[in-house]
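Justification of computing resources. Each target in the renewal requires a structure prediction run like the one illustrated here; the chain below, 174 residues long, is used simply to show the kind of job we budget for.
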Amino acid sequence: MQLSAPMQRFVVHWGEMGSRWGVNRSIAQIHALLYLAEAPLHAEDLAEVLQIARSNVSNSLKELQTLGLVRREHVMGDRRDHFSATHEPWDMLMAVAEARKQREIDPMIEILRECADAADADPDTPPLARERLRRMESFVTDLDGWYAQVRKLPQKTLLKLMALGTRIARFVGG
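Resulting structure tokens:
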């Protein structure tokens, strides 16, 4: 697979952004390459184009499949596994958001709840600290609940809401 200059720039940039989002650079670059590819690619192609180790490609593909961003496909006449990425940006966003929620928000809620409960039971914890822990727990739990509600909305509805932008705030009095 030959990459044009804009394709190369996108793959490199996506890798840089991935590392800022908490994703290994190779994982993000493989995702970017599969996103741009016209047809499913096998691991050897990915390793060759990106000039990374085949073992790195295998581990990265497993992670991308776990995230729901890449799927394995079979190509007639070729015994190797081929891989393709979802080409719908919205699906990519939702997969990444869900993975981050599970990795970051869910454990945070559990820790906040444990801390707030322990603070309530500890006479040495000042009332202001107990109140602040409960407020933070409540805020993050409410945010998680809001996220769950939004996830249930149809994609069309969410895209319309996004397009409305600040007009929604004016409508509800903000």
